[in-house]
Design brief:
Blueprint: E1 3-4, E2 12-15, E3 18-19, H1 45-51, E4 67-73, E5 78-85, E6 90-97, E7 104-106, E8 130-139, E9 145-157, E10 160-173, H2 175-178, E11 184-187, H3 202-208, E12 216-220, E13 229-234, E14 247-250, E15 258-266, E16 269-279, E17 286-287, H4 290-297, E18 304-306, E19 310-314, H5 317-320, H6 338-349, E20 369-374, E21 377-382, E22 397-399, E23 402-403, E24 409-411, H7 413-416, E25 419-424, E26 429-434
Parallel strand pairs: 6-11, 7-10, 16-24, 17-23
Antiparallel strand pairs: 1-2, 2-3, 4-5, 4-13, 5-6, 5-9, 7-11, 8-9, 9-10, 12-13, 12-25, 14-26, 15-16, 15-20, 17-24, 18-19, 19-22, 20-21, 25-26
């Protein structure tokens, strides 16, 4: 995940290794519910899903062998993990991406000069590799691409071994990929999001081969000031990584990890409500609608919308988290659009309210947060953490961790850095809890 400082108008966002464009709006609203996951041993998930069991049995003690490190680099802009393909194993830095379903790696023989900066997969030395029957290619919304050969081989993620995993061997790729640090992508969305939906995703294989105690994985991405290494856990939930109980919400639309957000606030200002969201480890920011982006930045001191760099903020954490002030061009700092004003009335009538610990706007101090209401619980992102990389042409300013342009919101690593997320493949739901910054 990174901000491409060469892009104009808006901050460019990498989603699953490529710069993204706005995605279509999601599906209709669904009912949400909550359950608590105490630490208890698990029996095999397949029979439990078939015959049913209490939700109180759905958590297991954390087992380190199921943890896969997620290395934080470029100041929280990207996380990569080490996986291997083939026999004997060939190791690569990949993005474990919940926003896509294709799995691929740069191949030996890629003629692009910058491929030489990457580890490349050599199929000729793998005894388990099988050729596919067709070429492989994936093209993303901004016309970035990768392609080459298709095949199957063994994939190892941590202590997990997946045989006959479908794999794209990239013989060519656009600069968004070749200029990046990662060598490929492992897609963790549902197979319908794949360039070839007939191919099984790694999670499909893990579930089908009964390799997990539970058909889920969970993500812990601590901010860099806390730790440089996060983790994915497959088949288990690590209760040492979060506070309180997990709050679950069913998916509103596959093939993405998408749900309905009840409401979003900054301080006491309602930003939007009843919004379709997806959780994406391959996006570094909070990607929202243009209206929501403006409503959020109107509450942040010194925030500006520029033609060349999109929304920018003072780099000082203390400045952006202090009491709001008016933006250039706004009549008052409290100004929001008529549509957002009506949303505030609707939200109030439906008992949506920001966290009671937050004061009114005139009293807001360093605890200013963006709040996301999910199943009656609020999950926060501190405004002090929004400044990203410095804007070279504007000393003292950084790119904002909130960007507009998407009717369907995307909660990227900016959200995950502050909230533990469970991706429950078997029950088709997401779980959330506030992150714990240490195991103590």
């Amino acid at each position: 995940m990174r901000v491409d400082l060469q892009c104009a108008v808006f901050v460019c966002l990498v989603v699953g290794g490529r710069i993204t464009t706005a995605l279509p709006a999601g599906a209709s609203a669904t009912i949400v519910y909550t359950d608590t996951l105490p630490n208890t041993p698990l029996s095999r998930w397949k029979s439990q899903l078939r015959y049913g069991r209490p939700d109180s049995l759905r958590n297991s003690p954390f087992q380190s062998k199921e943890a896969v490190e997620a290395i934080n680099f470029r100041s929280d802009l990207e996380y990569y993990s080490a996986v291997s393909f083939g026999t004997p194993p060939q190791t690569f830095k990949v993005m474990l991406d919940t926003g896509s379903a294709d799995t691929w790696v740069i191949a030996r023989g890629c003629p692009t000069s910058k491929c030489a900066n990457h580890a490349t997969f050599d199929k000729t030395i793998s005894t388990t590799y099988r050729n596919g029957s067709s070429d492989w290619q994936v093209t993303y919304g901004d016309h970035s691409f990768a392609g080459g050969l298709s095949g199957w081989d063994t994939l190892r993620i941590g202590a997990l071994t997946i045989t006959n995993q479908s794999l794209g061997l990239a013989m060519y790729a656009s600069p968004q990929f070749t200029n990046d640090m990662v060598d490929g992508i492992v897609g963790l969305s549902f197979r319908g999001a794949s360039n070839n939906p007939d191919n099984q995703t790694p999670m499909d294989r893990l579930v089908e081969d009964h390799l997990l105690p539970e058909p889920l994985f969970a993500v812990y991405f601590p901010p860099r000031q806390v730790a440089s290494v996060g983790e994915f856990t497959f088949g288990t939930v690590n209760s040492a990584r979060y506070h309180g109980d997990l709050v679950y919400v069913p998916l509103s639309r596959k093939p993405y990890w998408q749900f309905e957000l009840e409401a979003a606030y900054i301080g006491n200002t309602v930003v939007d409500q009843r919004v379709q969201c997806m959780v994406d480890t391959g996006t570094n920011v909070l990607l929202v609608s243009n209206e929501a982006a403006r409503a959020i930045h109107l509450q942040i001191p010194g925030a500006r919308e520029t033609h060349s760099d999109g929304w920018i903020l003072p780099c000082s954490r203390s400045t952006v988290s202090a009491a709001p002030s008016a933006l250039p061009g706004a009549n008052e700092s409290t100004t929001v659009s008529p549509a957002l004003s009506s949303m505030a009335l609707i939200a109030k009538s439906q008992s949506f309210s920001p966290d009671s610990t937050h004061a009114r706007r005139s009293d807001l101090g360093p605890a200013l947060t963006i709040q996301f209401s999910i199943n009656g619980h609020n999950f926060t992102v501190p405004v002090a953490g929004l400044p990203l990389e410095p804007v070279k042409s504007r000393p003292g300013f950084c790119y904002s961790g909130v960007a507009g342009g998407s009717p369907r919101w995307i909660l990227g690593t900016m959200f995950i850095k502050h909230n533990y997320v469970v991706f429950d493949h078997g029950r088709e739901r997401l779980g959330f809890a506030p992150i714990r910054h240490s195991s103590s």
